[in-house]
Q: What sequence folds into this?
């Protein structure tokens, strides 16, 4: 199934127009965690990034999962992404 990973905040949205083929929702969740891990080092600490989330959709429009950016250090994101 093709999943789309849209980055969303209160004021902004960065849509995923390509998507990724993954076998199931669990794999999509792990992929979202990896995206957060890869993105978090480039976002400064503070309230600017805490409201961000990844909305996972299938068929580009049907939101099926929301993964929040953590309110703590990126190390916990890395650990969670690798354990899943």
A:
């Amino acid at each position: 199934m093709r999943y789309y990973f849209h980055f969303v905040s209160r004021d902004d949205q960065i849509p995923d127009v390509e998507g990724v083929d993954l076998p199931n929702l669990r794999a999509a969740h792990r992929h979202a965690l990896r995206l957060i891990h890869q993105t978090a080092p480039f976002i400064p600490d503070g309230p600017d990034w805490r409201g961000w989330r990844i909305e996972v959709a299938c068929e580009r429009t049907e939101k099926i999962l929301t993964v929040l950016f953590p309110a703590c250090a990126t190390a916990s994101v890395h650990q969670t992404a690798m354990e899943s």
In short: Residues 2-83 form one domain. The chain has one domain: 2-83.
